[in-house]
Amino acid sequence: METRILLMDEVAEAGYLYLLSNQVPIPVVTTEESDATESIVFDYAENGRIVGIEVFDLVYRKLKQMPETKRYEATDNGYYWGFDKPEATFDFAGKGVTIHFADPLFEDFIGYTITDTKLYSKKELDKLI
Fold it and tell me: Rounded distance, CA 127 to CA 129, Å?
C-alpha cells in the first residue's frame, strides 16, 4: 500500500487527510465538526491528537485539484501541506494544527500546518516530505 496523506472518495464526494499518513494506524476515538466550517470534520485519537480531517462540499471540490501524492513541506512554522500558500490567510487552529483558508468565510481551503512536533511525531512527518 502506497503512503498517502490525501485519499479521495468520488462516490461519497468526500476526502480524508491523514496527518501522519495512511500507513500510521492510529485508532479514532471521537469525531467532531469544525466550529469554523461544516466542510471539515476532525477525527481524534485517545490522546486528543487529530488523526485525520474529513472534508466535504467546497473543501472536497477544491481538493479534487490536488494530486493524491502531495507531500509535506518543512517550513519555519512546522510541516505544511496544501496548495501554494498566499502571504495572507484566514486561519483557525487547535491541537497543534493550523488550517488555512483564502477567505474569511472559511470556504476556500488552502492547506494546513502541523505546528506541534511533540504531539505529532517529527520522525514520522520527516518521512512524508
Answer: 6
- Residue 80's nearest CA partner among 95, 93, 99 is 99
C-alpha–C-alpha distance, residues 79 and 43, integer Å: 19
DSSP secondary structure code for residue 63 in this structure: H
Tens-place pLDDT, residues 23-55: 878 899 999 999 999 999 999 999 999 999 999
Using the predicted structure, report yes or no on whether residue 1 has a pLDDT greater than 70.
no
Within 10 A of 106 (CB to CB), how many other CB atoms are there?
22
CA distance 69 to 116: 23
DSSP element (H, E) containing 109: strand 109-114
Q: Is there a contact between 74 and 129 (Cβ–Cβ < 8 Å)?
A: yes
The model's pTM = 0.93
Residue 88 gets which letter from DSSP? S
